[in-house]
Specification:
heterodimer; A: mainly beta; 7-stranded mixed sheet; 4-stranded antiparallel sheet; B: mainly beta; 6-stranded mixed sheet; 5-stranded antiparallel sheet; 0% helix
Chain lengths: 116, 109
């Protein structure tokens, strides 16, 4: 298993501002992902965070809006830029541990974002 | 593309058995995973079916039939703590999983 922490756990932000969410893992991982989840809804993949290179974004998500960094194997950040109320959601990072199958993902506790 | 459909809500009583279905449409498919998420919590991995058939892990079992594009999660001897949302997730060989619409399970005394 792995211990995954996210900061901040929650935040209330004004529209037009940006928020950077951090994800830290205590184990070596092969893959890191960022998801978004509206309350009561399913998880939507935003992007795959690639170490040392640009993230791979899913349809509907762009780097200018959701820049992602992954400077090493155990740390990644997601920035929600120029926020609007529609960005209010729970943002989750997830990882696949080294030696584990991709199907076994571990999720961080999430960051609850409210944009006013 | 890929979509995984689940019933939105299922209700059952303590001690009973409940089955949560997942049907999918995808252009390519490698296997089916199941995750549990309690309110306010993070999703946690339950099981994975790479091959057709039944996989059993304690009170939970998962089944996959790729010819029918169908799978299910079976929960036995239901307990109140099993009240949660359950997501199937499909593996199409891309680096990430695609999650189903989710089923909210309510266990009643």
């Amino acid at each position: 298993s792995a211990v995954i922490s996210q900061k901040p756990s929650r935040d209330i932000c004004q529209r037009g501002t940006s928020l950077t969410i951090q994800c830290q893992v205590d184990s070596q991982v092969t893959m890191m992902f960022w998801y978004r989840q509206q309350p009561g809804q399913s998880l939507t993949l935003i992007a795959t965070a690639n170490q040392g290179s640009e993230a791979t974004y899913e349809s509907g998500f762009v780097i200018d809006k959701f820049p992602i960094s992954r400077p090493n194997l155990t740390f990644s950040t997601l920035t929600v830029s120029n926020m609007s109320p529609e960005d209010s959601s729970i943002y989750l990072c997830s990882v696949v541990l080294s030696g584990s199958k991709k199907e076994t993902q571990y999720f961080g506790p999430g960051t609850r974002l409210l944009v006013l | 593309g890929q979509s995984l459909e689940q019933p939105s809500e299922v209700t059952a009583v303590e001690g009973a058995i409940v089955q949560i279905n997942c049907t999918y449409q995808t252009s390519g498919f490698y296997g089916l995973s199941w995750y549990q998420q309690h309110d306010g919590g993070a999703p946690t991995f339950l099981s994975y079916n790479a091959l057709d058939g039944l996989e059993e892990t304690g009170r939970f079992s998962s089944f996959l039939s790729r010819s029918d594009s169908y799978g299910y999660l079976l929960l036995q001897e239901l307990q109140m703590k099993d009240s949660a949302s359950y997501f199937c997730a499909g593996d199409t060989g891309r680096r990430a999983l695609t999650f189903g619409s989710g089923t909210r399970l309510q266990v009643q005394p």
